[in-house]
Write a structure and sequence with these properties.
mainly alpha; about 0% strand; elongated; about 75% helix
Length: about 240
């Protein structure tokens, strides 16, 4: 079977699962709302980063992106769905590539729309505090934010393939982002820069310090994602459906 029909069938699966569409809606709503609140609350702080403040809704919003990737993939391990999928597409590598593409494309589209809406909402809340932002800085942050959210969704999908469980994936990633990265990570020195979330989020900052920059930070996140996808692909090839 050619790649295009496989991709179309995988997209139909995602489109017909209402919880998945709800996570994309939550990604947009939560990120935009929290960015608007952050912009209004930090507008009087002269030491804050106006670009990061305007897009800070990504911090809670990324949980929705992680959930989308994890649930979209883990649904294949329920009720024998994976056996049916592989019976239709025996070439597991082609099926896995189509599945990941079906996850990545809507996440990227929604992520770009979300980051633009969040930036506008955050700037509106910040008022004159965000007037110094250049067009290049804002464009970089919007594009980088969309890419970052896509990478997080794919990272979760790769882990879900390896673990064969959406619950296990979410139980691992969400505490990592909410606890390890922000609590333990602050005491880890320069190592924290290379964590998958912290590295990718550098693209949201107007200025940065340390080893990595905005795009090299995204490259680090992409490396983590590639490792998770390779591990997932290996697991899919080696284990029974």
């Amino acid at each position: 079977m050619q790649f295009a029909p496989v991709l179309r069938s995988e997209w139909l699966k995602i489109r017909t699962l209402r919880p998945l569409l709800a996570t994309l809606l939550a990604l947009f709503a939560v990120t935009t709302a929290f960015s608007a609140l952050a912009g209004a609350s930090d507008s009087s702080d002269p030491g804050s980063d106006p670009l990061f403040t305007a897009l800070s809704g990504v911090m809670p919003g990324q949980i929705a992106a992680i959930s989308f990737g994890a649930v979209a993939m883990s649904s294949e391990f329920q009720g024998g769905a994976l056996r049916t999928s592989l019976a239709a597409v025996p070439r597991r590598g082609r099926w896995f590539a189509a599945k990941m593409t079906a996850i990545a494309v809507p996440t990227l589209v929604v992520g770009l729309l979300t980051s633009l809406a969040a930036l506008l909402a955050g700037r509106a809340g910040a008022g004159s505090a965000a007037d110094g932002l250049t067009g290049g800085e804002q464009a970089r942050a919007v594009v980088g934010c969309g890419v970052y959210l896509t990478l997080t969704a794919l990272f979760a999908a790769g882990l879900a393939t390896l673990l064969r469980s959406g619950v296990a994936t979410l139980s691992l990633l969400i505490p990592f982002i909410l606890v390890v990265s922000f609590v333990i990570g602050d005491a880890a020195g320069t190592v924290v820069e290379f964590m998958p979330d912290r590295a990718g989020q550098l693209v949201l900052h107007r200025t940065h310090e340390g080893t990595l920059g905005p795009w090299s930070g995204l490259a680090v996140t992409a490396s983590w994602t590639a490792a998770a996808l390779l591990a997932g692909a290996w697991s899919l090839r080696r284990r029974d459906a």
